[in-house]
Design a protein that fits this description.
Number of helices: 15
Number of strands: 0
Radius of gyration: 20 Å
Order of helices and strands: HHHHHHHHHHHHHHH
Structural class: mainly alpha
Helix content: 55-70%
Strand content: under 5%
Length: 316
Amino acid sequence: MKRGVWILLLLVLVPAAFAHTLYVISAEDAATVVSHPLNELYNPFNWILIACLPLAFWLLAHYTKNHLLVWKTKNISAKLASYEILVPWMMRLSLGILLIGAGTGSHLISPVVHDSAFNVLEIAFGFMLLLGLFTRIVAFATMFFYVYALLNNFYLLGTFEVFGASLFLFATGAGKPSIDDMLGLEHWEESRILMFLRREKSRILRTGIAVSFIFLGLYEKFLMPQLMAETIIKYNINSLLPFLSVDMWVLCTGIVEIALGILLLLDYRPAFVSVVTFAVLIVTFFFFKEDVSAHVTLFGTLSGILVLSQSRRFRQ
């Protein structure tokens, strides 16, 4: 049991610097002069540390599958699969809370886009999603909001799960429980596009988070490493594993983010990846104290991926 705990700590502490760095620092604050994190690869010892990351991931996956709660795994998977009907409700709640938080915070979708022109609509659409009223129309409008915000600031690629969640709701509708269902407002004319989107609903959610992770890993850790370095120094994250330099922290977090994104794109053990990612993201809130509403769609999407992966497993 102790071995499993240490494996989990290794996998969680190394990427504990996951965050939208521009949510917790400004670009002007990121004045720390650092060498590029790829320079850390000149040190042979760092290759050993980097090799420990996939090894820890594999050991943790093997340990949980064969030792940890093995007697309940099948029962848990069956329970999760039975929740598939609730996934649209989960996505409505998470996306609705994000829109209400964005509207009351006077920004559009993300805290990095300060635009009050749509605040009233964001709040109204948020409550409509919570109630499940005209869900497909609201989801389509939210996709428009996202694209508009993205054109104003490309950093919105780091919240691409918002677009994925909106597209998912456009495909599935409100589900149950919802006003749409109670009043019979869900019955749209079936089209090939809607049928295709419903078949690919799990892929839509996985792609949304994968694009976010890969973008943040590349942009914040390799193209603009000073952003991540300043965040690590500001919150004293390197004190967790003091033998790692700031640059090594930046390199490891970038590798882990990109790797998790690729694993989700490849549909490799999505349930396990979503659980690990969920745990890592929870840890980051203890360090950064970020606004929960700005990330609630991320947590909702991970939960949806977990449920849908188990539902698909039982259908096969």
